[in-house]
Amino acid sequence: MADPELGRRHIQDPNATASKIPHFGYPSRVVPCSVDPGSCAYLDAAYWMQDLSMLYTYSTFPVKRHTHPSIEIMAQYLTHCSLCIHRFIMWGMIGSILFIIFALRVANPRKFEKPMQRRELESGNMAKNSLFSRAWGAVSAGARRHLLKPEESLTRYFGHVTRLQVAILCGILAYLFIFTLVGIVYKSWVTPVKQSTSFNIRTPLGPMANRVGAFAYALTPLTVVLSTRENVLSLITGIPYQHFNFLHRWIGRIIFIQSVLHTLAWTIVQARLYQPQPKVYAKFIAEKYIVFGIVAQVLIAFIYIFSIKRVVMWTGHEFFRKSHYIAGILYLGTCWGHWARLACWIIPSIGIILLDRGFRLFRTFAIHRKVKDEKKGIGFKAAEGKITSFDDGDGGLVVRLEFSHDQPPWKAGQHFFLCFPEITVWQSHPFTPFPNRLQSHAHHAYIIRCLKGETSRLPLLAGTATTPVILTGPYGTPILDKTAPNILAIAGGTGISFALPLAAAAVAAASPTNNEIPAHRVELVWVIPRSQNIEWVQDELNALLHSYPKNVIVRIFISRESPPLELGAVDDMKGSAGDNEEKVTLRTKRRSSFMWPQHPHLRVSWLSDHHPDMRNIVEDFIANQPAPPSSAVPTGRTQVVASGPAEMGRDLRATVAAANDAGQVWKGRGGFEVDLYWDNRYF
């Protein structure tokens, strides 16, 4: 992009002298200043503020107000050196935070702990945790108690998020607010206009608007990387990519606000403070870089409006995703056209998008690269899935998708993006698999609720013999804490596809036939509206209960049905959640077209018209930890893994936060350290 006209835009005539001082992100400064003293003073202040703006985003040595030529040459040399070093302040802070998180992950003493063995439990000879381990646990418990709790007063604005997420956002806002105002020359100059009796009013409003715009450019790569699936931040922090969605949305909104302020400020300067009008503003608005800026402003306004949750509900998630991608790419291009001197932020943003898309395509082709037959050789072959449709009992539909695919290997809790070519090749959605009958990870099974959009057409494929499926993944970081002796897996509705494989993986590590295997106590809690929903995973529940009969308890809460009259042969007991709970025995009768799993460790609660209390469920699980030496399992840390409605996540966060007690953990009582992994990859 060509420079704006320096004669008008920057007061001085660039042809008046050959001496120029380069300034990163801004046109070079023409020296010496040959205009009126007021304009020269304004230029000194404007370039000084501009250099500070670059320092706060992309570091460069500020060129101060010099008078001696030798000092000007030295300043120019230092500026060039600083451009080679490419130091950051804002991004340096971000990098420092990421480095600290990575260092804490490496130093985590839990990584070096040996899981408690069964023979140690039975003998009662258990090694005590080290001082460092107890200190780590106490700090972790204290942080969860204060930061995991949802901020109810801000739910209207932020949704069901934790205090930690709000605190990070507030830290970003504080940095931007402080450094937007620091280093501004709060002074105005009244300068004459050539060949006119009018006067220009020169204020710091323009340089401040430039700083706000520079921050918006500098934040662009961050909001882009927060939105990617192939996320380098996940590799560094261990946090799954979907948990960055909150920051992605809000940093995007910050950029939108900054762009509005930038546009408004320069409109005031060019349409009001500079004279004569309307000649100045008409010439300003017709310049090429301003046209690019206007288009960029329209695009980011479109992105913001059509990413509001209520608007997404009106337009559909598919429209949101497609329009988001297209408008986002166009926005980056127009930002480059608006101010190419800050393309150092736009180029990485475009590069991140291309790399993310490239890795996705590579994953997909790597997964589906198969030998079709001897004649055709190697080619792209989709998985062949079978779909079974279920009525959820409330007028909705749920489908179960099954297929065999041996690549790539995946861990419990990870998810794939699935595309159904018979519906459309332009959409894919995230779903969590579980092994069919819990036998092999080469046999995928998915439980999918049919909502609006693509999934609403899945039941139409249930009548076909097979359905081609294209998958990309797996995505997600390892979830289970192998050293935690107590695992509580909670699911709401179709969230069972997340919780069930985690419960199976945890209980598989606690095989009762081997004393050298870590001992785990595992409980699976599933909240469903109708008893017939059991048939979604009845084979897997049977396999879980009968394969590991001593290590797992399954509790099912049915929220919209009363106890059936035909359950005549049950052992009544008072459920820990405060409702009538039955232990289903072999004498339980068949209710419908499905058969209840039969096992003494399967407990069913019929709630009629309400949901179970998550606090009671978690507190009962923690309170029922047997004390060593016991033939069962030890007391110790608890990990809660859960997936379900947003309200369930809110309640679990509050409950787990309250269950943590740093003081008790410091004393060596691990039962007061409770961790939570909440699966949330939706808008």
UniProtKB/TrEMBL annotation:
Gene Ontology CC annotation, any one: plasma membrane
UniProtKB keywords: Electron transport, Ion transport, Membrane, Oxidoreductase, Transmembrane, Transmembrane helix, Transport
InterPro entries: FAD-bd_8, FAD-bd_FR_type, Fe3_Rdtase_TM_dom, Fe_red_NAD-bd_6, Ferric/Cupric_Reductase, FNR_nucleotide-bd
Pfam families: FAD_binding_8, Ferric_reduct, NAD_binding_6
Protein name listed in UniProt: FAD-binding FR-type domain-containing protein
Membrane topology annotation: Multi-pass membrane protein
Taxonomic path: Eukaryota, Fungi, Dikarya, Ascomycota, Pezizomycotina
Organism, as annotated: [Emmonsia] crescens
GO biological process: one example: iron ion transport
